[in-house]
Structures are given as structure tokens and as C-alpha cells.
What does this fold into?
Amino acid sequence: MYRAVMRERAQRNPQFWDAICQDARAAARSMSGETAQTKSWAGLWLVIRMIWAADGFFPLFLARLATYLRGLGIPGLPMILRRLAIVTGQVHIGAPVILQPGLVLPHGQVVIDGLVEIGPGAIIRPFVTIGLAEGNIIGPTIGSRVRIGTGAKVIGPITIGKDVKIGANAVVNCDVPDGATVIGVPGRVISKAATEPPRDG
It folds into this structure.
């Protein structure tokens, strides 16, 4: 069963080069607001530049490469690459994790593990943990363009909607609707998307 789950999740991961180019573009935009092209040699140059300039980009690159090689059935090397990601940026991304393109880890120091999926365009600040509640291998499903602040914890089989902002050091263990802002321990919603219809009464 474990192998079947891993195979299914490997098939759902985005293509390595497309994903890492979008990661590089998002990292460049996050650092300086630039909107560089990420195709062919321009994309390769941007990836190299972000490896050099962005603290969290190289360990993310290693984690994505490990996932790609694991999908090809190459033994041993994916584990080495994951260990290198931990050593170089204190980034631990477990094998079952699905990372959609455009992820930004500004400074590394992130733990993501379990049956977790993170949507495109997420920004995850340092000292964040995204993972499992005790006794459950299913972790959070996180929507598009979510921003997770420094030190936050997102735990358990929950769904975080798109365009959510999670404040620094918040602990989130329940579902969060689209467009919400969450703070505190335990996390509580302090605002919701302006498009949400008002409640009567």
C-alpha cells in the first residue's frame, strides 16, 4: 500500500524543470519585484542566480530534484539529496509531500512532512512546521497563494483555502476558508475575504 501511495503522489507532482523555473521566478519576484522570463537559457540562468542569491532556494531545488529522481525509480540518491537540503538550509520536505510550482522559502528552516499538498504560489517563512497530528499520516492540504508567517504550525488533516494569511507563531489545526487571516494559539480567523456574503442577524 505504501508503494502505491508513493507512486500515486509521485505522478501528481509537477514536472521538475517547470516547477523549479516557476519557483525561481517567484523567488526573484519576492526578493526584488522582477518578472524575469524562465524559459530555456533564461530560465536556467535565473535558477542559477536564485541558487546563489536566495537562502531557501537551493534546498528547495534539492528537494524537488530528489522527488523527480525518486519518481524515476533511482535508489539512494533521493535520500542523499534530502539530507543535503537539511544540511544546507534546514529544509526537511518528506517524500510524500506534493509541492505545486511557484513555492517560495525565503530563508529555509522549514519542516513539511506526511501526506501534505501545497498549492501554487505559496510563501513559507522560517521555522514553519506543516505536518501531522499524532496518529494520523494525513497532513494539511494548502491552497494557492497562501502566506505562512514565521514560526507558524499547520497540523493535521485540514484544508487551508486559497489566499489565506497565517500569522507568525499561529497554530492552525482546523479548516480555514478562502481569503481568511488567521492568528493566535490556537489559530482563530480574524478576517475573511471581502467577497464572502454577510450573515443575517
